[in-house]
């Protein structure tokens, strides 16, 4: 009998109605399909800080699903808003048509965005937000008559989703090598990660501001008249939580301004409270030209992404004859009614429960808890900012990423904790509703997991 069949039998006997009959048909994204299907880790229900497996195990969520469920899981207010919207309006075409909640949500997002971001363009994911932002940036310069400005600059170890534009400006080699075709005219700044200089930094590391000077070198080499935009995550998440060194982002911004280059902040993970402010732009007090958001926009409940757009950019597109389309880009599900309703409810919940402010109250406790793991087996670095954390592990010789993957499995199977791992790094980003006792529990579970993983 296969492992899967025997597991199914066990789970049936444990009255699990949620276990699927067939695991083979689904090609899971970014997954080791073969290993998963031999050892499935299923989640069938969630509430607050916890997931539940089909057999009823309660799993502490250390990553807000995948950096998205900032208000915690299955919050009644969001669930009700989605239900109500589904009864009232299932879908409305987005091209040359509108539905009220898309406008209401855009106004609401503009109110919480940094000053000057009074326009919102919707997609359905972080990847689509990035794709839209890159297109807006490129076409902005065409609208302005700067037809040579076509170069895009990303950063090594940047992650901007998986569409061709995002993968091109992103800096993860593995996400590229399987595909072999990308946007031309893209260059990458160096990443800011340096264990020799910055290991075990609390908050923003001291060393690394000068890495921004690479942008000046690129401008000197390629000419500012040819560069359209720079895109960075204020805090890089998917490549293992790389906290920007002090003054680094300010310097990038200054160089962009000085050379008439647009700055795009990809805030897909930092948006909606992760650093204690609505956006990292506000936290770092840096105003970019475009901001990409997704995930926390509706606490991960319905697929949605968006670009927050500065007035000067939007206005450049409004110079055409009234009946002409101003941007040849969009999606069938741009501003889907269910996603909008969910987002309006999530934003209200964030506000009613002061969840962004909570992050400021908890961040020191979070930092202390995380750094108490210094000295635990295989730990070579710990870093944190807001309600984000990372624990970097010594890789197993000759088998990079294996140790962290083992940690993920050990944490889930034996310590009832959901982690995210990337490379040999454990990334942490719990829902913003986490209580101090749950932080303690998470740290305790992590400690045991690390001690018990080779
Ligand atoms: C910074 C950043 N940009 C873009 C994305 C892509 O988002 P999605 O997976 O919703 O397409 C992610 C996903 O983690 C992200 O962290």
The domain tally reads 2
Distance between the termini: 29 Å
- SS element count, helices: 17
Rounded to an integer in angstroms, the radius of gyration calculated over CA atoms is: 22 Å
Chain-averaged pLDDT: 95
Helix content: 25-40%
For the largest beta-sheet, the strand count, sense and barrel status come to: 7 strands, mixed
Structural class: alpha/beta
User: How is the largest sheet built, in terms of strand order?
Assistant: 4-10-9-8-7-5-6
Strand content: 5-15%
Attached small molecules: pyridoxal-5'-phosphate
CATH fold-level name of the largest domain: Aspartate Aminotransferase, domain 2
In total, the number of strands is 15
**Which of globular, elongated, flat, extended, rod-shaped describes the shape?**
globular
Low-confidence stretches: none
Give the oligomeric state.
single chain
Second-tier CATH architecture of the largest domain: 3-Layer(aba) Sandwich
Name the CATH superfamily classification of the largest domain.
Answer: Type I PLP-dependent aspartate aminotransferase-like (Major domain)
Q: Which CATH class of the largest domain? A: Alpha Beta
């Amino acid at each position: 009998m296969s492992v899967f069949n025997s597991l199914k039998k066990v789970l049936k006997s444990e009255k699990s109605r949620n276990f699927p009959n067939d695991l083979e048909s689904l090609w899971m994204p970014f997954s080791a399909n073969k290993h998963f299907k031999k050892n499935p880790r299923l989640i069938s229900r969630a509430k607050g800080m916890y997931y539940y497996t089909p057999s009823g195990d309660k799993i502490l969520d250390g990553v807000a699903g995948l950096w998205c469920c900032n208000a915690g899981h299955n919050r009644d207010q969001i669930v009700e808003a989605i239900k109500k919207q589904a009864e009232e309006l299932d879908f409305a075409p987005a091209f040359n048509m509108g539905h009220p909640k898309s406008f209401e949500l855009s106004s609401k997002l503009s109110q919480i965005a940094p000053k000057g971001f009074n326009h919102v363009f919707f997609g359905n994911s972080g990847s689509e937000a990035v794709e839209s932002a890159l297109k807006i940036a490129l076409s902005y310069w065409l609208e302005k008559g700067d037809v040579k400005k076509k170069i895009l600059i990303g950063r090594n170890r940047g992650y901007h989703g998986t569409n061709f534009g995002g993968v091109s400006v992103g800096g993860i080699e593995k996400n590229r090598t399987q595909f072999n075709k990308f946007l031309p005219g893209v260059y990458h700044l160096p990443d800011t990660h340096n264990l020799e200089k910055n290991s075990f930094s609390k908050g923003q590391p001291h060393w690394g501001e000068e890495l921004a000077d690479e942008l000046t070198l690129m401008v000197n080499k390629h000419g500012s008249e040819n560069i359209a935009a720079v895109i960075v995550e204020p805090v890089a998440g998917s490549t293992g939580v790389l906290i920007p060194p002090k003054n680094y982002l300010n310097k990038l911004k200054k160089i962009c301004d000085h050379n008439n280059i647009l700055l795009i902040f990809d805030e897909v993970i930092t948006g909606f409270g992760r650093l204690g402010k609505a956006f990292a732009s506000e936290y770092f007090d840096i105003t970019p030209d475009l901001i990409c958001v997704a995930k926390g926009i509706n606490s991960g409940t319905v697929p949605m992404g968006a670009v927050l757009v500065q007035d000067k950019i939007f206005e450049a597109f409004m110079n055409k004859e009234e009946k002409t389309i101003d941007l040849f880009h969009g999606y069938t599900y741009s501003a889907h009614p269910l996603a909008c309703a969910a987002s309006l409810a999530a934003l209200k919940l964030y506000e009613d429960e002061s969840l962004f402010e909570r992050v400021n109250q908890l961040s020191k406790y979070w930092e202390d808890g995380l750094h108490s793991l210094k000295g635990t087996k295989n730990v070579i670095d710990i870093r944190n900012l807001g309600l984000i954390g990372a624990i970097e592990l010594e890789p197993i010789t000759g088998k990079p990423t294996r140790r962290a993957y083992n940690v993920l499995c050990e944490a889930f199977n034996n310590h009832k904790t959901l982690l995210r791992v990337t490379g040999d790094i454990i990334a942490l980003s719990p829902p913003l509703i986490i209580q101090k006792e749950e932080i303690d529990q998470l740290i305790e579970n992590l400690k045991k997991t690390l001690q018990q993983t080779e």
